[in-house]
Amino acid sequence: MDKELYLPRIAILKNKMDETPDTSTFTFILPEGGNLNHIPGQCLQLTVFGYGEAPISITSSPTQKDYFQLCVRNVGNVTSALHRLDIGDKVGIRGPWGNGFPIDRLKGKNAVFVAGGLGLAPLRSLINYIVDKRDDYGKVWILSGARTPKDHLFRSEWNRWNSIDGFEVLTTVDRADDTWNGNVGVVGSLLYKTDIQVENTMAFICGPPIMFRFVTIDLKKLGFADDVIISTLERHMKCGVGKCGHCNVGSKYVCVDGPVFTYEEMKKQPEAL
Amino acid sequence: MRVLYKKELFSFIERLKESYRVVAPVKKDAEYVFDDIEDAEDVILEYPTTILSAKEFFFPQKEVILEYDLGETIQLKSTPEVEEICLIGLHPCDIHALLRFDEAYLTFKPDPFYEARRKNSLIIGVYCTKPNEFCFCGSMGTDTIKEGYDLMLIDDGEKYGVEIGSKEGEELVNSINLFKDEEEIKKPRLKGFVREVDTDKLPEIMMKEYDNKIWNYFGERCLGCGKCVFICPTCYCYNVVEDTDIEFNSGKRERFWDGCVLTDFAAVAGGGNFRADRTSRLKQRILHKFSYYPERYGNFGCTGCGRCINVCPSDIDCTRIINMIRG
Ligand SMILES: Cc1cc2nc3c(=O)[nH]c(=O)nc-3n(C[C@H](O)[C@H](O)[C@H](O)COP(=O)(O)OP(=O)(O)OC[C@H]3O[C@@H](n4cnc5c(N)ncnc54)[C@H](O)[C@@H]3O)c2cc1C
Ligand code: SF4
Ligand code: SF4
Ligand code: SF4
Ligand code: FES
């Protein structure tokens, strides 16, 4: 595989589901069958032929054996080309790469997920992994915030998650409209709306950098230690394999050493926070 | 010790040309560059330093890393095209630079393009005899060399002493009857450096002074022109562009030299830039060489070749930054 570091594999677009006006979940299959065998939290380099590559987190769980999913916001060249593809079209993928979430460290522990907007995409991979390996993990809190009700991702899964024993889903928006009678306010405020057990719990935060900063302050207040506060770093990426230098943060490369880092690790690298 | 008389050098190069693409320093206007050798008499082995480093022969300024045809089945190709190359006349600092490049490109997920070129190369170095005013290899420990070459030449007036560094080097010396057995010739010891830095605990000291105002003083003068990273023998960063034919039937992906001092290096979609100001970009260049790279790979990412100091239109000098920060 490494001999072909820059050679993408082919994947075929099987299904496309709109989540929000600018974000959709794309389901792909591999021509040879099977899935990517990824670790939740890993990402891949997606090629839309003719347009280029973009790093995208894998949002499906590796427990889904026949397909994988990417949840992508249309922001530019490659991502808009992806949104224009038809079912049956082919894309290229390199990866999965990066470290992924610490699923072994999490064994036997509880998990609190704090997502801002698109941040729920990488977290969903781990959430659904826990759903399928329920006995290995403890309680789960899913806190998700979005700008408006229309911007919430994976709404179709909220009920399913909430109905699982030991799972609790809490959601909020920055600005409500008439379709919304739930919480209004920043996602961090949800941490105080339920009894989150701090002991034996790891926190996973994904969202814009500013949200990470505020949520971390809340988590520290609640008593979470730096090494159980876990997040992902997003950087410009060109190669995904520790060569092009674009994702360099201190002595780390986000593409190969990350994208998942503990707050403790981030504090050691200049420019990480 | 094996020796090669200088009057035999041309014959030696002619012999090499039978099996290799031969590259060596030649004079171009008032300066020196590594170039393909048509005529063995153009080779100059006594030179201060070349303008450009030798990295382009392993990591070209631009190269295709993927080609594709979008027919019924998609055809993909990502194969390096390489030729046997012999580089003659590299100074110890530039051989160290290749070893640094190897650390970055071969120790983890080897880069197939770079790897193929490195494997098909023969390195015949020459000990430098006279540093120029920009060199500080004496401080970086790169003024002499123990590995990374096939042969190493030691200038001794009318002849070169030949150090053998590899099996290929030994076979080469044995297969060409131009080499004689004579007395040991000592390696030169470089003296007279104008520039010096103290590398003791340097990675830690640089990090401790992360917020020092000195960074702004230099950062504000940096033009972001990128000359320093392009001529640097150890800078390996690149960017990628996609190029297709007008009907989207086929295309290619090319990588080309990029550098952290350029404005958009850390920019992301939606207008964000993780290094929006010049100071943060210059800091990345210097800290990557003297703190981050050593923390990751164990050696300094700088060989003290001095090229970046020579070339900078704003007189930004990493030795001066280091010395001011060390106080
Ligand atoms: C680890 C990681 C995981 C990601 N996961 C997702 C995901 O699950 N869903 C999703 O929608 N987006 C995700 N992104 C962001 C996504 O990569 C960018 O939105 C995308 O690269 C934009 O490409 P473009 O060509 O459409 O935009 P353009 O603006 O046209 O891109 C310009 C160039 O900048 C680069 N670039 C721009 N923004 C980014 C960025 N944020 N990160 C890296 N490179 C960038 C692109 O490679 C491209 O070459 C992730 C980014 C990273 C680093
Ligand atoms: S050569 Fe000098 S001015 Fe140009 S980018 Fe480098 S440090 Fe800045
Ligand atoms: S940073 Fe400057 S002195 Fe150091 S290796 Fe690069 S060009 Fe040479
Ligand atoms: S990060 Fe900057 S200094 Fe380091 S190799 Fe890349 S361009 Fe050179
Ligand atoms: S994306 Fe190229 S080094 Fe990380």
UniProtKB/TrEMBL annotation, chain A:
Note accompanying the cofactor annotation: Binds 1 [2Fe-2S] cluster per subunit.
Cofactor list: [2Fe-2S] cluster
InterPro entries: Cbr1-like_FAD-bd_dom, Cyt_c3_hydrogenase_gsu, Dihydroorotate_DH_ele_sf, Dihydroorotate_DH_Fe-S-bd, FAD-bd_FR_type, Flavoprot_Pyr_Nucl_cyt_Rdtase, FNR_nucleotide-bd, OxRdtase_FAD/NAD-bd
Gene3D superfamilies listed in its UniProt record: Dihydroorotate dehydrogenase, electron transfer subunit, Nucleotide-binding domain of ferredoxin-NADP reductase (FNR) module, Translation factors
BP GO annotations: pyrimidine nucleotide biosynthetic process
Binding residues for [2Fe-2S] cluster: C239, C244, C247, C255
Ranges in coiled-coil conformation: none
Keywords: 2Fe-2S, Electron transport, FAD, Flavoprotein, Iron, Iron-sulfur, Metal-binding, Transport
FAD-binding FR-type domain sequence ranges: 6-103
One Gene Ontology molecular-function label: flavin adenine dinucleotide binding
The protein, known as: Hydrogenase
Automatic annotation (TrEMBL), chain B:
Annotated signal peptide: none
SUPFAM superfamilies with a match to the protein in the record: alpha-helical ferredoxin
Pfam families: Fer4_22
Highest taxon above the source species: Archaea
GO MF: iron-sulfur cluster binding; oxidoreductase activity
All copies of domain 4Fe-4S ferredoxin-type, residue ranges: 211-243, 292-324
Protein's name according to its UniProt entry: 4Fe-4S ferredoxin-type domain-containing protein
